[in-house]
Predict the 3D structure of the following.
Amino acid sequence: MTVPQLMLAQGHQIGHSHKGRVGYNIGDFKGMDGNMYRIRLILASALFVGMVGNVHAVDSRSRYQSWQPPAGETVQSAPQADDSRLQKMIDELNQLINDAEKDRAADRRFLQDLRDVVNQYDWPWRKILLEEDFTDGSIQKKSSWKIISGDFKLQRGLGLHSDVAEQQATPERSSQSENDAAALLIGALLDQAMKSKKQSPSPSEPSRFDSHASIIGKIITPNAFAITMDIDVRSHQGKLELGVYQGSPDGSGYRVVFQPGPTASIEVQRIGSRGVSIIDVADKINAKGDRVHQLQWTRSKQGNMNILLNDQTILQVADRSFKDKFTGVVINNKGGEFALQGMTIQGG
C-alpha cells in the first residue's frame, strides 16, 4: 500500500502523543459525505505539501505530530514563475481549510496545524508595487524617491550609493583640564573688561560629518506587505534602517535596523506617539561587512512579521498597532558605506 493510500484508508488511526493531544480516527467522520470528501482532499494536499517540506516519513505505526521546518531553514519565499501551480494548490487548500473550520468537519487542532504548514509555503503578497534595479543607473518615476538629508548617488553598476562616516565621540576632559579652561575663561573676561574695543565672537565650527543620510519613496504600501532589498555593505560595519511610515517620514510606523559587522544584529522597532519602542532584536547573527546581503521583511494582515537575511529567518514577531496603509518607505544610513542594488515591494 502506498503512503497516500495508507493516509486516506478509512479507519486508519492518526493520533498525537505530543503535549498529551488526543488522537482521532478518520473513520469517525462516517456519514459526513461532503465533509468526508473535503477531509480527504485536505489530507492528500497536506501530504503533498509535507513531502515538499521534508516532513517526517509516515508508516503504519506513525503518530500525527505538529510539523516544524528544519532547524535554521525557512521555506517561505517569493514564488518563482514555475511555482504558479503550487500556489494555486495552496489557495485551494486554504479554502478547504476555511470550509472545514466553518462546518466543523475536522479536529480544530489538526486544521490549525495544517494551516501552519500551508502558511510556510503561502505567498499572499502578489501585487508588485515597486521593482527597482538600481544597478542600471535609473529609477522608476512612479516611486518618487526624494533625498531628505545627507547624500545618495545613483551609479550604474553599483546602485544607490551612500557613504556616511560615523561621528567621532568627543573625548572626555579631565578635571585638571576643566580647571585650566575655567582659569583661561576668567582671564579672558578680565582682559576683555579692560579693553575698550569689543570683539565679535567667532562662528562655531560646523560638524565634519553628517549624522545620517535619508531617502524616502512615496509608495502607498498596504498593511500586509513584503519588502526585499539587496544591500551591498561596502564597509567593515555600519547601520542601515528600512522603514514604512504613515504621514511624515519620521511619523508612526515600523523600522528594521540592520547593523552588519563583527557584532551584527537586526532590530525591529515600532514608532508611535510615545516614541520608539523595540519589538525584538536578534544579535550575534552572521552578517559580515564588505559583502552583499539580501534583507526580506514580510508582514501579514494579522500583524505577523518575518525578517529574513540571506534566506534565513532571523526574527518572527507580531504587532497589530497599525491597521491602516502606509504612505511611504524610508531608508536611513546612520553610519557606514552602503549601495542598494535592488528593491522590491509587494502588497497582499
In short: The chain has two domains: 3-121, 127-166+209-347. The first strand starts at residue 13 and ends at 14. Helices lie at 3-8, 33-52, 84-103, 108-121, 175-194. Residues 149 and 213 are 5 Å apart (CA to CA).
